[in-house]
Amino acid sequence: MKRLGIVLCVAMLAWPAHANTADAEPEVSVSLEATPRKVRVGDTFSLEVRASVKGGGLESVRLEDLRKYPELEVVSHQTSRPTQISFGFGSGMQVESSVSHLYAMRPLAPGTYTFSPAVATIDGKDYESQGLTIEVVGAAVDFGDPRGEPPDDDELTGARYDPDSFVRTVVEPTTAFLGQQVDVSVYLYARVGVVTRTVSPTKLSMDGFWVYDEQVQNLQSDVVTVNGTRFQRFLLQRSAAFPQRTGTLTVGAPKVTFDGGGRSIFDPARRIERSGVAVEVEVEPLPPPGPSDAYVGNIELTASIDRPEVDTGDAVTLRIQSAGAGNTQDLRIELPTIPGVRALQPAIQDQRRFSGDTMGGVRTWEWILIADQPGKHVVPPISIPYFDPKIKKYGTATTNLVAFKAEGSAAPKPTLPSSPSVAPPRPDETQFGPIRVYSALSRGSAPLRKRAWFPWLLAFPPFAFLLLTVAVGFSRRRGRDRSSAEAVQRERLAAAKKALRDQDPRGFYDAVVDTLIHAVETRTNDPVRGLPNTDLRSRLAEAGFDEDLIGRVINELDGADFARFAASGVDGQEMSRCLERVETILERIRRLGGRAS
Amino acid sequence: MKHPLIAVLLFCASTGAAVAQEPQEPTPSNLSDLFSEANTAAQRGMLPEATQRYAELLEAGVRDPDVYFNLATALAKAGDYPGAILNFERALVLRPGDSKAAQNLADAEAALEESRAEAEGEASIRRSSAVGDAIYQPFTDNGLAMAVAVANFLLFAVLGWAWVRRRRGRLFYSLLAASALVLLWSAVGLGVKSDLFRDGPRVVVLGDRVPILEGPDPRASVRGEARGADRGVLLDQDGDFVKLRVIGGEEGWVAAQAVGTIAPNVRAD
Predict the structure, then answer these.
(1) What is the DSSP letter of B231?
(2) Whose CA is closest to A322, among A300, A294, A297?
């Protein structure tokens, strides 16, 4: 409920902010960017269409020319729709929605491809980005047929050769300029079987480098020939390293452990550990006469502004984007002072990506510029000197000139917030008080679930239930046995009574004998029918019968046996008395209690 | 005869001195004095001193929601919003129904966002959005543990009663379903509270723009950065570094003192 309340409060705070900005022009930014803009056939480049809006509803973003060129193959497409709630400089809470479509594209033929501007529709109105031209040159690089004859890698550097398996570090180039990209790849060469999931390389030490690791998700292998021997080669690690100081820098020796072998009885499975060798890189300072702090790589700078005209006191967003090869995160820009304009701290975003062997990326700065004075405000071109190590030449990347116009007189700064719902009150120190002067000063104690007795407390009910189940089941079984024996005896007595009613002495005495025998056998757990009286007497004594009861049982059995064979001389009264005696005997047997052992 | 007497006197004197020099454990009375001193300092606006006193109470083993609340309040007044947010969170762990602490937590987050927005144009704090946290937030760890124990007892008592009496009427099924549901609900809650469904304890980032490194080494390359008051999960620890996953998915190593564990009984540093 509390969270629901917070959500409702946020919604209530946000609604008036929308309501106030509904009439105002939304802040819109639509961009169409490609990185890089000059590519070779077969190389992949990224094309990003991005639209963001503050204070408006973003309906759609279109790039009509996306499918215009069949020579540009769309390899992948990624869409993101982040929504951000921001608190900004007195205008209260603002909702910024944006849509970004990122396409990975591969040109299949050389040429110049021009894209018309991307169009974003916001609240029924169209906004356009700048157009874009992609230049595709050259032919595709032939990487060779991986299924063909494996290359002979006779010049084995960066490795300690072992005929079974070894680790190799490939560093390219080994002589570099300060800040130039150095590719570092670590390979495992193996002639033994390798269980790939067990391969565990240690991280390379690369002091003095700024390192970006390319994620190696699954170990891929190819076959190469070294010293005339074919090896399976696994890429373990691939990094782009940028030297940060001159002199000799060392890429540490790699180390890898893996489970190998196991292919045959002559090649037993075993844990294998291999170490490589360290590789040195000579780092030279940038050559004169260029600036020593030049960016190393090749970049392009673009500047854009989201609105050409604003009211004085309102803000625009200046966006400067650098894209190209090299460590773009190393780029720094100082925004020059613009008279009559106040600039807030920039928000910086970085994107890194490998394009083939070259690492590149995009760094974007976004400044909020507040026009304090009316008039035309110009953001002067910003230049960054760079050194391209491929052609060993200096160059300068410069932004285009952008300007915006502020109209109207400068608005006086409000002394009080116009509406508390538009500008949420900033919590001041009084809002956090008062402190609490009473406290139990309770000490930390382990929660109940961590107490030693808690598992036992939880185990007790099921354990007790189990015991109860067993005990009750056992008791019921005993009761069932006894009651079933009594039922049989009752049934036989009923047969005797029926025979009495029918004046059937033979049937009566048969039933009497059966009843007594059953009662005795239930008690003794042994058959007693046909036993001589002496044996029967001893069995009954063992079963807990007293002498009187033994005598009565034996007399009754003897009498019944006799009467069965002289049934004609028996009258009904004698049978009735016999029945009463038998019932008395049965009752006494029943009272003897538990079953005899 | 004289020498043994001197020896005994010397022994008594040295023992007394040794006892006098031993550091004394804080007793309830001097804990109370310390708390009063801290409160007085806070009321007079001597916030660093107040913060120091409250921290001494915590070092002495006090884990009281009011102490965490006062410490958080002092930190918030001093402008240390990430520290304040961490301690308001701790106060809420110990006393989930503390509406003032919840309000102050929200105020501290709003203040931090606003101050950042003024400086940078926009701001956001990455917070936990787990449904389980929201559902079980009003309940204490011990309360859920007791609920598990009682529901467990009730469930098997009902089963036992039915087994003995051989009666399985509407009452039996109602009690059985109710106790089983309470048991399931409280057991899941206990799992949420004990971080069973997370990869580690929850933490709050204390420093601003804390670099997230590739490895537990200050020379490791930077993967990203965490902002003050961002929430995350502590995955591992290696020396002075902890492995952190910030809400939103970014993962890497940061200095151990740059994060604080929300659960008051666990210490990351």
Answers:
(1) E
(2) A300
Higher pLDDT, B213 or A477: B213
User: Which helix (H) or strand (E) element contains residue A194?
Assistant: strand A194-201
ipTM of this model?
A: 0.75
Give the separation between CA B63 and CA A477, rounded to whole angstroms.
57
The pLDDT value given to residue B242: 92
Please name the residue of chain B whose CA is at the shortest distance from the CA of residue A239.
Answer: B221
Q: What is the CA radius of gyration of chain A?
A: 49
Residue at token pair 């185990």: A459
Q: What is the pLDDT of residues B197-243, one digit of tens each?
A: 888 888 999 988 899 998 888 888 888 889 898 989 899 988 889 99
* Helices B99-120, A2-21: inter-axial angle, 10-degree rounding: 30
Q: Find out whether A339 and A372 touch, Cβ atoms under 8 Å.
A: no
Residues of chain A in contact with residue B114, where contact means CB-CB under 8 angstroms, are 87, 424, 426
The pLDDT, as a whole number, for residue A83 is: 58
Average pLDDT, chain A: 78
A478's tokens: 């005993």
Q: At residue B265, does pLDDT exceed 70?
A: no
The residue of chain B nearest to residue A463, with distances taken between CA atoms, is B156
Please, is A300 exposed, middle or buried when counting C-beta atoms within 10 Å of its C-beta (0-12, 13-18, 19+)? middle
**Helices then strands, each counted (H, E), chain A:** 6, 32
Distance CA B262, CA B87 (A): 8
Q: What is the CA radius of gyration of chain B?
A: 25
Record the pTM: 0.41
Chain-centre distance for alpha carbon B179: 31
Residue by residue, DSSP assigns A396-457 as EEEPPPEEEEEESPPPPPPSS-S-TTTSPPPP-GGGG-PPP-----PBP---GGGSTHHHHH
Judged by CB atoms closer than 8 Å, whether chains meet at B62 and A444 is answered as: yes
Sheet architecture: strand order including A194-201:
A194-201, A255-260, A270-275
B51 part of contact set with chain A, CB < 8 Å = no
